[in-house]
Amino acid sequence: MKYKFFLKLILLAFVLLFFSGSAAVAQKKVLRVGLYTDPETINPFEFKTWNELPVTGNITPGLMGPANPDTGLRRMSLAESVEILENGKDILIKLKKGYKFHTGDPLTPEDIKFSVEQTQMPDNANVYAGIFSEISQVEIVDEHTLIYRFEEPFAPWQDTMWMGVSSKNYYENVGKEKFRSHPVGCGPFQFKERKRGEYITLETVKNHAEYKPDFNEIRFLIVPDPITRLAMLETKELDLIYNVLPHQVAELKRHPHIKIKKAQVPSLYYLSIKPSFFPELKDRKVRMAISYAINRRQIVDKVFFKQGYPLYTWANKGEIGYDPGFKIEYNLEKARKLLKESNYEHGTPLVITYTSVMPNAPIVATILQKYMKNIGINAMITQLEYGTYLTYARNKDPRAGHMALSAFAVDQDPNAHLALGMGSTSTYCYYTDRPNQEEMDKLIAAQNKETNMGKRLEILKQIHAINNSDPGSISLFGLYEIYAMNRRIDYTWISGGIYPAYLYKTKLIK
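^ that's the sequence the OP posted. Answer follows.
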């Protein structure tokens, strides 16, 4: 009897242990977000592409966050206030109090100074290093105050405020390689685990100074295929997906557990052309012929179900200097005439490369191929993995193709993409020897320093006039951001944001 009694006790204890463990798992609140490509890096000092920010923004926020389109100012993050000093060029920054890094160390101006210096460092190859090089000195005033010193007025000074901030002590203690795989910041989530090509997991920081997320973890699942991302939302394997394609909306509406939202965001999709590296594209008449041959409105209406708008100049619809009155007509007759007058040899193949960076890229590439065939250009299509294409493009490798379907996620201020994509020494400029390149470089430098908005707009107008008449890239369209979620959560895209920012504000619907 005693044996049977003790056996029952052991069995009961096992059952209680099993179910209590199951309950603990069930109570763990995980937000599952689908990423369309694996971030190239999670080290904020080595920033390469905007797809890194949904991850790093939750770990290592900056002094300021995404721009508010209503005010033109970035939202405050780690900074309590920013102020332009009387000399018109230096910025006084006061830090919020109570912030700590995930190591327990307090956030100090010394950490800000260190983070700026790391972002500027050439070895880190941060694509925004040129912008941060405008800061000549970070002066520490007291334990919560610092000053960014600039050599001269810098119009887009806010673009030096968003970079991720990390702990100087932690970086120096663990070294660069450890930091690259396990970054530390003072955001509401901290790094937990990463499996390349599959997922990145963050966990909630207990007793965060400002935010108490509804979730214990965020798990970013790497799902490059848009059809698979959609299916995983439908089967509840994902809670949130973005970059939803317009033609997928009807399918999503069939599922009552899914809700769909739309946001106006900075958006610029274009055909990147490389005239400096391919003689077939050197003649501007070839590039202008291609531009006239593209029916942008048709692409937006037919491929994206009118969830966007045509773009004709290399500028985002909401940015400073955008001219809504400028148009390039769809004109096959003019396109054929220009091509006939050009030095393009009939039958010469021109390669169009596409990656996952553009929605419906295979379809858009096929349509562009048809448009070019209509005027006598032999266009071939090839696909590359996005990271591979970026490597080829940065290294000016011909395997990147004559042309590529590209995207530039930009804020309201145009300086970043002008500096990165139009200057003769720019990382992503493939037309570095245009006939008036010296003038272009001077104009880019001039708008960079002009804090008077009226004068700056005049300079930007000249820049766009040069590029419109002799394009290094051909703008195609902008798209609205369509995102969808499981009804167990509620998330609202931050207006003006170019990535899903502030995921820690996502609410769990009980």
